[in-house]
Specification:
Chain lengths: ~130, ~600, ~260
């Protein structure tokens, strides 16, 4: 039965990734968008760790185990660590941008913040004409 | 290779990083000018170091294993060598791209020397970090390391693009830039993970060797598709390009120059590097070629068509960047040394042409507070300094012999012809002519007031840009334009120095030498390459250049004076309707941009993952 | 129709990706039996450099260059966030300092905060310093250090947070941390081997001063990460306290104005 675990992890990673993508394309709030991006990144963490799984492996910390004890892959753990830090950094940056967008436009709905050519200061807060909002 | 030279690749990354940290740490405590000088000094030193590396490399490679983790012999016969460390690998073309990155960042920093009153040391720190990331990326010999530098490019880039927080367009565009690019990098991380799962390695050379161990399957194809996503997003290739126009329209001018000149080039470089170290000989070359040529064509034409529809000069330049990236991708898509040389030379020339155009636009913005072609109509009469930049840049975009893009364009046209892809030559010529005509039209309107006065027609209100405005005397304008002329001069150098052409062709052979790369990285071996050289200034290339220029001038005249009666014919009406539809599609909000990214990735995956 | 476009694009793309993905994943090697070649070499290298924590050995010793980049991603993001959330000249006149005043927080909460703060800092320092011996390291420890300072905000108020971690000092601290990491790398270069070479004495297995440069790098990272996270959260809090509400009240931060509102 242990062989099922990695496939469950891959499936879980794939599902989380798709859930994040779904959130991104249907988002109506910038903070929700940034968080969905985080969710997508979480899927990559899970995938990395799943790839490194070893049956019967323990943590790769040899302070109290023997040299030849089977351990999970330390390289993917290092990669995941880097990925987590990068993800946190990006989240902070994108949230800062969202805060500023909210302040300047008075609107946090990405569907309403249409591409720049069409925007004018008078549209602040109102849905664009012809849309049901 | 002396000791210092062999460590140059590391220094090209570590020195700007240390500079960024230094400026971040003490920049707020010291006078602004000190932070300025430090940043400019570090960027200049990096540029000098990169040039030294290019010159010293010859037809070899420099491999730096970080942390002293040189590859150890594995197995009893000691022939296969492996390492746990990260390698930086420099060959002439990657070092040349590092030069471009450094020079463009330096130009941007020089440009802000006299204006940009309110920025702090943070701006300098971010620019240096951006430079370090680009250097690190082009020199990286390790998949995950490349990913980290991609992310650093992103982090610095989003903050720089959104720097003018009082300007709603800036922050919105930076947010789009951020979300789309970060998502693209996530896709690529999945690709890297899958490659690691398959091969158990992260070093490019080692992964490449392992991928040859068994026949390729859907997994390998999928990894290439996923890796391409991040590269194509950064390079602004269709359909991952929607962020570019907004970001480059609204970002501060020097940041636009860096994004357009250097960052998109690293995206195209990534496609080439990953193909030639990982997938050459593994995946079907014909399939990859069709895919890349298709993407390149679509990007080149779409960018060019949308370029001529813009009145916001920065947006116009952004779409022209997209178009030129498409052309460069054509060169890469040929999957051969000649095509690659042409593509990379094209990107170098593009940086030396697009950078000055953005800087010139920045001067206009500074003087008049707007970059709307219609609002600026006739207002800049007599500004010969800025005009010269626009004219040279505009003509350069069409491939005027002797200017930056000439080398790449002529080489690319020659290679396309020898590969029996003559219709793609038409794509190259037409897209270049279209973008050039748009710039020349803008220059004619702004500096001479030629053509019908657009303000007499019912128009939307002009877009006002409230930033970057100040009193600009002739002297200050000259100072601000000095980096633009520096870049233009470098472009001329690229076009006319024949030794560069020969060196570039040899370097292209080195770049595409899959086995040589692995040998150099893993076994420290160096080998000779044989390159074919062809003349650049041939009759046919000059003729094609003449055609492009003529077309550009005719089109510019048509935009300026095109009789209104012509505009009412059926054909033109249909054309206009379809372009308007395309335009409408490009008013994409963030969710649509993500949707396009997902669809684009899926198309790549389906094509490659069969 | 246009409204549905993102969902349609995303759905079609996702389905196609899922189909290709499943086919591709079926080609993944049988998981869990043989370690990846890189992993096996990494463990051997960790032993060679007397680092019991193989993950930290990979992160800071074998792939230290990656971590350099990652650290600078955090630095760029932190200074970028500070830049993006800066107060503009026209916003400065809206500043009312007394809105950040001392709070009507329960004395018990204050006491617990005051007790927990040094404990959190101590744990953070421990995690940073022992990164090479047990799970931990600069990033993890730095986050704990930062959360210790968040306690100051939760238990007291924004003013206290600002006093404990003045933005100027934090800015410099993160720069120094990042510079420290890069400098250790240069030390390796100057010492004749390579950038980021682990040339300090490797010490005795399982002791605090072992694994060469790894503890030093951990300290640099801990400093940078702690400072960066506090700075970023402080900037966001500042923004929250600045944004006026539509009904004319100012300050979105309830506990900052609760005391005022009741008077």
């Amino acid at each position: 039965m242990a062989d099922v675990l990695p496939w469950l992890l891959y499936a879980g990673a794939g599902w989380i990734f798709l859930a994040g993508l779904y959130g991104l394309v249907t988002s109506r709030h910038l903070v929700h968008t940034v968080v969905c991006l985080s969710v997508t990144q979480s899927a990559t963490y899970l995938l990395l760790l799943a790839v490194g799984w070893t049956r019967g492996g323990t943590a790769p910390i040899f302070a109290d185990i023997g040299r030849h004890r089977r351990v999970v892959d330390p390289v993917v753990q290092a990669m995941t660590l880097t990925d987590v830090v990068v993800g946190a950094a990006m989240t902070a940056l994108l949230l800062a941008l969202s805060v500023q967008v909210a302040k300047r436009r008075g609107c946090v709905d990405p569907r309403l913040l249409r591409s720049l050519e069409q925007e004018s200061e008078e549209e602040r807060g109102r849905p664009a004409p012809g849309r049901s909002g | 290779m002396s000791g210092l030279e062999s460590q140059l690749p590391v220094l090209l990354v570590a020195v700007p990083l240390a500079g960024a940290a230094l400026v971040a740490a003490v920049g707020h405590w010291v006078p602004r000018i000190l932070a300025d000088l430090t940043a400019i000094g570090v960027a200049a030193a990096t540029a000098v170091g990169a040039v030294w590396l290019v010159v010293g490399l010859g037809s070899g490679r420099v491999v730096c294993w970080l942390g002293g983790w040189d590859p150890q012999p594995a197995g009893k016969d000691g022939s296969a060598r492996e390492s746990v460390g990260i390698a930086l690998v420099a060959d002439r073309w990657s070092a040349a791209l590092a030069v471009v990155a450094a020079v463009v960042v330096l130009a941007g920093l020089l440009f802000t020397w006299r204006y940009f009153e309110e920025t702090s040391a943070t701006y300098h720190g971010l620019m240096l970090a951006f430079l370090a990331a680009m250097s690190g990326f082009v020199l990286a010999g390790d998949l995950f390391d490349a990913f980290v530098w991609f992310e650093l490019m992103g982090a610095a880039g989003y903050a720089l693009a959104g720097m003018r927080v009082e300007e709603p367009r800036s922050v919105h565009a930076a947010l789009e830039f951020g979300v789309v690019n970060t998502l693209g990098c996530s896709f690529s991380l999945v690709g890297i993970t899958l490659l690691y799962a398959r091969t158990g390695e992260l070093n490019l050379a080692l992964v490449g060797e392992r991928l040859h161990d068994r026949p390729p399957d859907a997994l390998v194809g999928l990894t290439f598709a996923l890796l391409l996503v991040a590269a194509l997003v950064k390079a602004a290739v269709v359909p991952f390009h929607f962020w570019t126009a907004d970001a480059e329209a609204a970002a501060p001018t020097p940041v636009c120059a860096v994004l357009s000149g250097a960052m998109v080039a690293t995206g195209v470089y990534a496609v080439a590097r990953w193909w030639w170290t990982l997938y050459d000989g593994v995946l079907s070359a014909a399939l990859a070629e069709h895919l890349l040529l298709g993407l390149g064509t679509a990007t080149a034409l779409l960018g060019a068509v949308l370029c001529v529809c813009q009145r916001h000069v920065k947006r116009l330049l952004a779409y022209s960047t997209i178009s030129h990236v498409g052309v460069a991708l054509l060169g890469v898509g040929l999957l051969g040394p000649a095509g690659l040389t042409a593509a990379l030379a094209y990107l170098l020339g593009h940086a030396c042409t697009k950078g000055p155009l953005f800087l010139g636009t920045g001067v206009l913005l500074n003087q008049y507070g707007t970059v709307d072609e219609h609002a600026l109509f006739g207002r800049a009469r007599g500004h010969w300094l800025t005009l010269s930049v626009f004219v040279l840049g505009g003509l350069g975009l069409a491939g005027l012999p002797g200017l930056g893009l000439w080398w790449g364009k002529a080489s690319l046209e020659h290679t396309l012809t020898t590969e029996h892809l003559a219709w793609l030559v038409a794509v190259v010529t037409v897209s270049g002519a279209l973008t050039s005509s748009a710039v020349l039209r803008a220059a004619a309107r702004i500096f001479f007031g030629l053509g019908a006065d657009p303000r007499e027609r019912a128009e939307e209100t002009a877009t006002e840009e409230h930033e970057e405005q100040g009193e600009v005397t002739r002297g200050v304008a000259a100072l601000m334009l000095a980096p633009a002329w520096l870049l233009l001069a470098l472009g001329i150098g690229l076009a006319v120095v024949p030794d560069l052409h020969r060196a570039g062709e040899t370097a292209g052979e080195v770049f595409t030498d899959h086995h040589g790369y692995a040998a150099a990285v893993l076994r420290g071996a160096s080998g000779a390459v044989h390159a074919e050289h062809h003349a650049l200034w041939t009759g046919s290339s000059l003729a094609l250049a003449a055609v492009a220029l003529a077309l550009s001038l005719v089109l510019a005249a048509a935009w300026l004076w095109g009789p209104p009666a012509l505009g009412r014919t059926r054909v033109v009406g249909a054309l206009r309707a379809s372009v308007d539809a395309l335009h409408g599609l490009h008013r994409a909000d963030l969710t649509e941009q993500v949707g396009w990214l997902v669809l684009g990735s899926a198309v790549l995956a389906v094509v490659l993952g069969r | 129709m246009r409204r549905r476009l993102p969902l349609v694009l995303g759905a079609v793309g996702a389905v196609a990706l899922a189909v290709v993905g499943v086919r591709a994943f079926l080609g993944l090697p049988g998981a869990g039996e043989v370690p990846h070649p890189y992993a096996a070499r990494a463990v051997a290298a960790a032993y060679a450099h007397t680092t019991p924590n193989a993950v930290v050995s990979v992160t800071l010793d074998q792939r230290g260059f990656d971590t350099l980049g990652e650290e600078f991603v955090l630095l760029a993001a932190a200074i970028g966030t500070v830049l993006l959330l800066r107060r503009l000249a026209e916003e400065a006149h809206e500043d009312r300092p007394h809105d950040y005043g001392p709070e009507d927080v329960f004395e018990a909460v204050r006491l617990v905060g005051a007790l927990l703060l040094p404990a959190a800092l101590l744990v953070g320092g421990y995690v940073v310093l022992h990164g090479h011996l047990s799970p931990g390291g600069g990033f993890q420890g730095g986050t704990v250090l930062a959360s210790g300072l968040y306690l100051a905000y939760l238990a007291a108020d924004y003013r206290t947070l600002e006093r404990l971690g003045p933005p100027g000092v934090l800015d410099t601290a993160e720069g120094v941390g990042a510079l420290g990491y890069a400098a250790v790398g240069f030390a390796g270069l100057i010492g004749g081997s390579a950038y980021l070479a682990n040339d300090l004495p490797h010490g005795v297995w399982n002791s605090l001063l072992s694994a060469g440069t790894v503890p030093v790098l951990n300290v640099a990272i801990g400093l940078e990460v702690g400072a960066a996270f506090v700075l970023v959260v402080a900037k966001f809090l500042e923004q929250a306290l600045l944004v006026p509400r539509e009904d004319g009240d100012d300050g979105g931060d309830r506990d900052a104005t609760a005391g005022e509102g009741e008077h």
